Amino acid sequence: MILGIDVSTSITGFAVVGEDQIVYYDSVDLRKEKDTFAKAITVKKKLMDVLLEFSISHIYIEHPFTFFNSGGSSAKTMAK
């Protein structure tokens, strides 16, 4: 199975794909976390839950710095 992760400083998404279909998806809302370390701990907890539930063979993380446009992520957000 493949785990895909869409990392953001506000909401990070997770999806598990097996046999050409999504078998699980969820996200963690990080807007309530006060600092970067709290955000990292929250993401780690969700990641560990997913890794314990599914037999993951590959992990893909969204490539950073893919766009700069109105309504998109800012350089400051992407650098975090």
Provide a descriptive summary of the structure in words.
The chain is α+β, with helices and mostly antiparallel strands and 80 residues long. The chain has a four-stranded mixed β-sheet with strand order 3-2-1-4, covered by helices on one side. The protein is globular. The mean pLDDT is 84.
Q: Give Rg in angstroms.
A: 14 Å
Largest β-sheet summary: 4 strands, mixed
**SSE pattern:** EEEHEH
Average pLDDT metric: 84
Got a strand count? 4
Helix content: 25-40%
Overall morphology: globular
The assigned structural class equals alpha+beta
Number of helices: 2
Brief summary of the model shown:
The chain is of the alpha+beta class and 80 residues long. The protein is built from 2 helices and 4 strands, in the order βββαβα.
List the helices and strands and how they pair.
Elements (H helix, E strand, L loop, with lengths): L1 E5 L4 E8 L2 E9 L6 H18 L4 E4 L13 H5 L1
Parallel strand pairs: 1-4
Antiparallel strand pairs: 1-2, 2-3
Name the descriptors.
4-stranded mixed β-sheet, 2 helices, single chain, alpha+beta, 80 residues
